Amino acid sequence: MIIKVLGSGCSSCKKLEENTRKAVEELGIEATIEKVEDFKKIMAYGVMKTPALVVDEKVKIMGRVPSAEEIKKYL
User: Fold this and answer.
1) Which of 34, 41, 49, 52 would give a disulfide with 6, using CB separation of 3.0 to 4.6 Å?
2) Would residue 63 show up in a list of annotated catalytic residues for this protein?
3) Which of 10, 29, 43, 44 is catalytic?
């Protein structure tokens, strides 16, 4: 599983990455978590509001920071 956190590096983006890592750890799954800060790459996903969460190349959440519990539903 490849998980991408899209965002500029703001506090919300960092919180989304933190919550994502927590969700992966709690579920005990194998996943690669990548941080994407390049706006051209972010726009390629059709994301207009960051932060955003992409799981296996599908945008699951954008424009807000979900809890680790909510992220688990998408993994």
Assistant:
1) 52
2) no
3) 10
